[in-house]
Amino acid sequence: MRLVHTFLCAVMALGWFAGCEKEQPAAPPQERLKAAKAIRDPGNRDSALVKVAKAAAAAGEGEVVQEALSNIRDPGLHDSTAAACAPQLMKAGKGSEATEVAKSIRDPGIRDSVLSKLADGK
């Protein structure tokens, strides 16, 4: 019985300590953008900028999205990221920024498709 009691106390203590670890909040979008832009490897930089742009779009940070997009060198990655970010900005109430992001898409078919979705309120 004493062994069971000791075991239960150990399990409870582990659960208590595990609950103490709190997830750290994400850094502000502008700080994340600075870090991403400082990455020297172009592929890694583009990947980081995509993550920053998407997180900023979800937070309604249109200026950060636009700056992140302007630093993505891969045209296809730029367009796919802009296409993902524009509707998020619209949902965040940033319609003019969403439209500017959509207009930055280089592929005319993708650009028109995204602009059409924005016009439909999607």
SSE topology:
Layout: H1 2-20, H2 29-37, H3 42-58, H4 62-70, H5 75-91, H6 95-103, H7 108-119
Helix pairs in contact: 2-3, 3-4, 3-5, 4-5, 4-6, 5-6, 5-7, 6-7
Report the total helices.
Answer: 7
Number of domains: 1
The overall average pLDDT, rounded, is 87
| Broad shape | flat
Largest sheet: none
Q: Class by helix and strand content?
A: mainly alpha
User: What's the helical proportion of residues?
Assistant: over 70%
Element-level helix/strand string: HHHHHHH
User: How far apart are the termini?
Assistant: 62 Å
In what range is the share of β-strand residues?
under 5%
**Runs with pLDDT <50, length 5+?**
7-11, 13-22
Number of strands: 0
Oligomeric composition of the shown chains: single chain
CA-based gyration radius: 21 Å
Walkthrough of the structure:
The longest helix is centred in the N-terminal third of the chain and has 19 residues, at 2-20. It contains 7 helices and no strands. The chain is flat. It has one domain (27-119). 29% of the residues are buried. The protein is 75% helix and 0% strand. Helix 3 (42-58) runs parallel beside helix 5 and helix 4 packs parallel to helix 6 (95-103). By secondary structure, the chain is mainly α.
Which keywords apply here?
single chain; 0% strand; 122 residues; mainly alpha
Quick synopsis:
This protein is an all-alpha fold and about 120 residues long.
